[in-house]
Amino acid sequence: MAAEPRSSLSYRTTGSTCLHPLSELLGIPLDQVNFVACQLFALCAAFWFRLYLSPGKTSPDVRHAFATIFGVYFVIFCFGWYSVHLFVLVLMCYGIMVTASISNIHRYSFFVAMGYLTVCHISRIYIFHYGILTTDFSGPLMIVTQKITTLAFQVHDGENSSSELDLQSSSFPLYTQAKPSFLEYVSYLLNFMSIIAGPCNNFKDYIAFIEGRHTHMKLLEVNWKEKGFHSLPEPSPTGAVMHKLCMTLVSLLLFLTLTKTFPVTSLVDDWFVHEANFLTRLCYLYVVMQASKPKYYFAWTLADAVNNAAGFGFSGVDKNGNFSWDLLSNLNIWKIETATSFKMYVENWNIQTATWLKRVCYERVPWYPTVLTFILSALWHGVYPGYYFTFLTGILVTLAARTVRKNYRHYFLSSKALKVVYDIVTWAVTQLAVSYTVAPFVMLAVEPTISLYKQLTSVFLPGEPHGPKSLAGCSP
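Above: the chain's sequence. Below: its structure in token form.
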């Protein structure tokens, strides 16, 4: 796809154009401005929802209705007529929910939801080539797909738990014993707290939140009396929300500075391709990949704050007796940046998606669970070639990391000093391995990915490779 003028990209959207002057003023594409505006409005709506539509004042049906109405409005504001895809998928899968047998409901829902998502990915990118508009509606569609399949599997498991699944499975506490009503179904899938940026959550937790049982249910799960409480407290999310909003602000500032200073396009610049030596290329790759993270930190942390502001996301009491609001958190920034293994990194990045992949694929498939889980992850993300480079490379890196850890880690546990050396080396190797693995995910297209790989392997090959000088066709 040929690069287009920024001023053109800033206006092309199927959503509302009322914020176009602000988009022009900030020099940020209109669809991104609409996204942030919706999330900020959702934050305000979430506080109002918790204070004025609390379970003690309002019936569950009213809470469901308002959550759904706000969610539908936000989707239409951001994506305009593209939002029809969301509504069509929701209605099709509700038809499956009420007509399919329990024994097949998870299969039909999975194949319809993933099939529809894949068709949309293909048509948006390859058939219409982004058409005349640039709005990316696939994000909400991906979240809805996760929720549809999560609920379908939990309804199926609720009827078959004794015969088909190990009761010690991580999915067991989340089984759903009855099919939801239409209002519950659309509220779970389209509520304003998660429709734009997620995260995926469990139906049982969501219904408990709407009915006012969420925090008490989580307190009972963690044996609150042992934490020093003599009666069920009423945790406030305000502190957690303020903390996450501060993290969001820092991420936004980093995005506006670091990300624009080190764009992914610099990985195919003449300097990187022809002049930089191997170590410089490796370090620069790490910096560029670090610079690509703040937009994810911003979107996921803000989405988490929106849910918390509405009173959703309480996870219990931690070991220090503090209330935790990380049930829906999608990342742990500290653990990501200090990860000493590929597994640790992956487990703390896009946490809710990793949980979804584990429950609908990894714990269920009888053969090659790691390989099939990576393939499903790639398919869910989309059809850009870069995704498949990343996830196929991820399979090899995961298997290699397991082998190295199993065969060599025990040699470094005999003393504290050796363990420190081991942690430092594995941290550096992990961060560079992740940068190498995820670079195609950010670059998207085949040509720049192959060019990058040539530059990074040139130290082992005779001659100096020459790659393309542009990222045409990579990033929208």
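The two ends are 8 Å apart (CA to CA).
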